[in-house]
Every structure is written in structure tokens, then in C-alpha cells.
């Protein structure tokens, strides 16, 4: 049975007032609710739209319930009826008074007084492209899982190839794995190494020694076949996404100027956030929507945690990948990562860099200018901020230089 929907609409609103001093105080308020229930089939969705049009409804409020809201939203959008999709946590009714009918009345009342905050819904074209980009993301994760499985099968056979090569699915490693499946001798497999791997011939021969059984070969062959299939599928999806970027070429190219973002990552990020960021008041709001900024949990004047909230998982995943790539570039993003990783750890540093990237995206889109690296030295700023405290600690524990005659003062530990 298709999931159903319950809608409540205001048909009348009459108020009576009683004089009280200089103000009018409402003593009664009567509202008439019209309620109907519809299934999720398209025939009933069309009936829903016709019913709302007959009532002259100016705004529809509905909860974001998985994917069930999407077909209804599309029908309302096509009919020209404004609709707000709201987070269910933000409009939750009082526990103990929650029914489907009560929820529909509560949403109608909140919408009437403007007490709901709509979620960001991209245009129809980008919503459809999200299906392609997120499917591409899922296939990429599946390919990574297959590579990990390949590594695990080799380790199970005692072959430590993954400890020697940088990429278990690289050109050299792939040729060696195919040679192992075919049963070629180790000396012949070591000759397949390319580039700098040729200088590791002795280590390669040691890593390729193992007991590869027929069942190991059977699984490895299927993994390799699946990997080649996934590569072909990803190439097809990449070509489709690049072609679909024609209407958004200006913003797509602006994204590619940011370190760590290539043409595919730029396309997928643009599909998630769109090219019109007017729905977000500023860069902070955009970062909050993506849940890449510190969370707030304060009570009785005490800040309990700053853990990030749950947000758009797709954009968060893409920006963290971009941050991982940007930390290997010669840019201000690399400097920011280096200034944080020592004291905050890799994961928190990556989140901070991703936060910086999404705020940079907001600036680029609003100004319509390409990225220009600031050259800001985050490590120097960190030293400037903490140097007095460090010097004080060095003096306290006796590690401060004891002689001014030498070019490089000697640090003498306390006895």
C-alpha cells in the first residue's frame, strides 16, 4: 500500500475582541479545518492538487519524510502552489498529543503564523541531476570497497603487495595481480613494475610470495572484473555530468579554481548547492546547512559540546574529499590543515578545511570571481598567538637559552 498523506486547510478565521483598557483582547477564536486523506498514488496526488486549488490555498507545509515528499512537491510545483518542506525535528508536536491529524493541524497553524523555516530545495533540473551524482558517489564508494576486498584477499594468501605499492589498483599493481591470477612466476611479475617501482624489485619479490589457492584466484578474478565494470560505469556517468554542466558553466569553472576540486567534484558540488545561493543569508548559514561548522549545545551558561550536526551527507562527503586533496597542495588550505592537525587531529582538521572551502564557495559565487590564494600563513599566525605562552613554559621548566654568545643558543634542561 502506498504511503498516504493527511492535509489540513484553514477555511475560515473569525476573531471576537473585548475592550480592555486601551487594547483589544481576543476572547474567542474560531477556526474551521478541512481535512482529507490521500494515498501516494499519482491519481490521488492529482486529486490533492485539484482540492488545494479549489480552496485557494496560498502555502503548503509538509514534513521532510524520507523521499515521500518529493513526488508531492513536484506536483505542487508544477501547479504553481508554493510549498515549504520543513525538518520534522523543528516542528515536532508535544509528546503525548501526536497523531497524524494533530500533526497536520499543527503544521497548518505554524505555517499560518510564519513559524516554520523551509528547507533548501534546489530547482527541478538540479534535483534530477542529484539522482545521477549521488548514484555516481555510491558507485565510487562501491569501487573503494572492492579495492579493500582485493587487498584483504591478497593478505589472506600471505601476499603483502599492498604494503609495498602506494595504490593496490594502480598500473603496476593491477598488472601484478592479473599475473598472480594467471599463475605467472614471481620473477616475471616483478618485471611488470613501472616507474620508481623498478627500484624496489627485491622488496616486490618478497611481497609477492604467498600461497595463492584456486579459490583465492576465483575471488580475485571476479573482483577484477567488477572493478573494470565499475570503472566503465563511472566514466559514463562522468561524461554525462560534464555535459549537464553547460547551463552552469560559469559557476562550474569558478569551483575548479579552488585547490582540491577537479571538474567532477565541481559538478557534484554545484548540483548539491546550486548556482543561486540567495536562500542562504551569508557564508555562515551555508556552512551551517552543510553541517560543517561547530554545533551549539549550551545550557546554564555551560558549553557542553561543539560537535557538528547532521546535515546534507552528500555535500559533506564531497567537501571532505576536496579538503583531503587540498591539504596536499601548496595553498592557504594546506597551511590551515598543517596548523590544526598537530593539536586537533586529522579528522577535525579536515572538517575545518572543508568549512573553509564552503565559505570560500559562497564568496566566489556571490562575487562571481575566481579563487585567489590569500597566501596567509596559518602556522605563523599560530606561533604568534601562542609564542608568549610557550616562552613562559620554557622559562618555567629551565629550557630557555643560557648563553648569548653562541649563534644558536643551547637549550639546557632543568636538573
- Overall tally of structural domains: 4
Lateral arrangement of strands in the main beta sheet:
1-2
Helix/sheet category = mainly alpha
Rounded mean pLDDT score: 84
N-to-C series of helices and strands: EEHEHEHHHHHHHHHEEHHHH
Number of strands: 6
Strand content: 5-15%
Question: Helical content, roughly?
Answer: 40-55%
Shape: globular
Structure write-up:
The protein is mostly helical. It has four domains: 5-119, no CATH class; 126-244; 250-367, no CATH class; 387-415, no CATH class. 53% of the residues lie in helices and 11% in strands. It has 15 helices and six strands. It has helices spanning 42-55, 68-79, 100-112, 124-156, 171-182, 186-190, 201-207, 214-244, 249-256, 263-273, 283-289, 313-326, 332-344, 346-367, 378-396; strands at residues 5-20, 23-38, 60-63, 83-86, 297-299, 302-305. It has a two-stranded antiparallel sheet. A two-stranded parallel sheet has the order 3-4. It is globular. Mean pLDDT is 84; it is low at 11-30.
Amino acid at each position: 500500500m502506498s504511503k498516504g498523506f493527511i492535509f489540513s486547510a484553514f477555511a475560515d478565521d473569525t476573531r471576537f475582541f473585548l475592550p480592555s483598557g486601551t487594547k483589544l483582547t481576543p476572547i474567542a477564536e474560531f477556526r474551521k479545518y478541512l481535512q482529507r486523506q490521500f494515498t501516494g498514488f499519482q491519481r490521488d496526488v492529482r486529486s490533492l492538487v485539484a482540492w488545494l486549488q479549489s480552496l485557494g490555498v496560498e502555502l503548503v507545509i509538509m514534513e521532510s519524510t524520507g523521499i515521500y515528499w518529493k513526488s508531492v512537491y513536484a506536483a505542487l510545483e508544477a501547479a504553481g502552489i508554493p510549498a515549504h518542506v520543513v525538518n520534522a525535528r523543528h516542528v515536532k508536536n508535544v509528546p503525548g498529543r501526536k497523531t497524524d491529524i494533530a500533526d497536520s493541524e499543527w503544521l497548518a497553524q505554524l505555517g499560518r503564523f510564519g513559524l516554520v523555516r523551509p528547507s533548501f530545495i534546489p530547482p527541478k533540473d538540479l534535483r534530477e541531476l542529484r539522482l545521477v551524482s549521488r548514484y555516481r558517489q555510491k558507485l565510487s564508494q562501491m569501487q573503494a570497497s572492492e579495492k579493500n576486498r582485493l587487498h584483504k584477499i591478497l593478505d589472506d594468501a600471505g601476499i603483502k603487495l599492498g604494503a609495498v605499492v602506494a595504490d593496490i589498483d594502480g598500473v603496476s599493481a593491477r598488472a601484478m595481480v592479473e599475473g598472480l591470477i594467471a599463475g605467472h612466476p614471481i620473477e616475471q611479475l616483478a618485471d611488470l613494475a613501472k616507474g620508481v617501482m623498478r627500484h624496489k624489485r627485491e622488496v616486490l619479490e618478497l611481497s609477492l610470495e604467498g600461497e595463492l589457492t584456486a579459490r583465492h584466484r576465483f575471488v580475485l578474478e571476479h573482483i577484477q572484473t567488477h572493478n573494470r565494470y565499475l570503472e566503465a560505469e563511472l566514466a559514463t556517468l562522468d561524461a554525462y555530468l560534464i555535459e549537464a554542466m553547460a547551463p552552469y558553466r560559469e559557476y562550474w569553472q569558478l569551483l575548479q579554481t579552488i585547490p582540491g576540486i577537479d571538474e567532477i567534484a565541481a559538478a557534484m558540488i554545484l548540483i548539491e548547492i546550486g548556482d543561486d545561493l540567495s536562500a542562504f543569508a551569508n557564508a555562515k548559514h551555508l556552512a551551517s546547512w552543510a553541517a560543517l561548522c561547530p554545533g551549539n549545545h549550551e545550557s546554564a551558561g555551560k558549553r557542553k559540546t561543539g560537535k557538528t550536526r547532521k546535515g546534507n551527507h552528500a555535500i559533506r562527503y564531497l567537501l571532505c574529499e576536496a579538503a583531503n586533496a587540498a591539504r596536499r597542495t601548496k595553498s592557504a588550505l594546506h597551511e590551515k590543515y598543517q596548523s590544526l592537525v598537530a593539536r586537533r587531529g586529522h579528522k577535525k582538521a579536515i572538517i575545518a578545511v572543508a568549512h573553509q572551502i564552503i565559505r570560500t564557495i559562497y564568496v566566489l559565487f556571490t562575487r562571481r570571481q575566481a579563487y585567489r590564494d590569500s597566501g596567509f600563513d596559518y602556522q605563523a599566525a599560530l606561533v604568534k598567538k601562542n609564542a608568549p605562552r610557550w616562552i613562559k613554559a620554557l622559562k618555567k621548566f629551565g629550557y630557555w637559552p643560557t648563553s648569548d654568545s653562541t649563534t644558536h643558543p643551547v637549550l639546557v634542561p632543568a636538573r
